[in-house]
Specification:
Elements (H helix, E strand, L loop, with lengths): L5 H16 L6 E2 H8 L13 H13 L3 E4 L7 E4 L13 H13 L2 E2 H7 L9 H11 L8 E3 L10 E4 L7 H4 L5 H44 L1
Antiparallel strand pairs: 1-3, 2-3, 4-6, 5-6
Helix pairs in contact: 1-2, 1-4, 5-6
Length: about 220
């Protein structure tokens, strides 16, 4: 399979996630899928994609039989993944393998312990050793490996895993420790996002109050 870019792996990860966590809302419309890709939580890196970018990636994934469009009557098209499940897939994945890969797609390199915790809404594992055994099966060199274990980071006990669907990872970059400056920048961006949401909600409340007052005035006129 040709390497997938960040947007394409994000789309697959979102579709796998939403199929398991919100089945009543799955398959996803373009708007819902774009929102899922741009979530601020449970995503690394956080993206700000336009619908046109997501649609272009969907079209490419559909040509690879990794995503399928479905329609219900005359409604807007919706999308479902065929990743590891299509009859055309080179390799088929079971529920637990699919869960692990989707979390790696959504959140980047992670330890087996992190994968176990973060995939809890999608499936269950008996223990970390169970996760490790599935990761080892996905890293099997007797067939094309789709994950690999990164070198141990200084001062860390557990090694992280990364998927290979986007080609060989930049190990040097992934091994660089997160600095306090990086953490402060992330915190500042998070605070900016929160402040923007608060401002938007305040404007919405003000607008609703004005509409409610108008309705009260109309009702008073009718009663009087």
């Amino acid at each position: 399979m040709q390497p997938l870019n960040l947007i394409e792996t994000r789309i697959i990860g979102c579709l796998v996630e939403k199929a398991a966590t919100t089945p009543d809302q799955y398959p996803l419309s373009l708007n819902s899928l774009t929102s899922a890709c741009n979530q601020k939580s449970n995503r690394d890196p956080v993206l700000a994609l336009e619908e046109s970018e997501v649609q272009e990636a969907i079209d490419h994934l559909a040509s690879l039989n990794l995503v399928a469009e479905v329609r219900f009557g005359g409604r807007v098209p919706k999308y479902q993944h065929r990743f590891g499940t299509s009859e055309f897939a080179e390799v088929h994945y079971n529920e637990r393998q699919l869960a692990i890969l989707s979390i790696l797609f959504l959140r980047g390199a992670q330890t087996a312990g992190e994968l176990r915790t973060r995939s809890a809404r999608l499936t269950s594992f008996k223990d970390i050793e169970h996760v490790e055994s599935i990761l080892e099966s996905l890293a099997d060199t007797e067939r094309t490996p789709v994950v690999m274990k990164l070198p141990r980071e200084p001062g860390k006990r557990e090694q992280r895993w990364v998927h290979l669907f986007s080609g060989e990872p930049d190990i040097e970059h992934l091994s660089q420790p997160t600095t306090s400056a990086d953490l402060h920048e992330e915190e500042r961006e998070s605070n900016k996002t929160l402040a923007h949401r608060v401002d938007s909600l305040e404007l919405e409340v003000t607008s609703l109050r004005a509409e409610l007052q108008t309705l009260k005035d109309v009702l008073d006129d009718l009663l009087n």
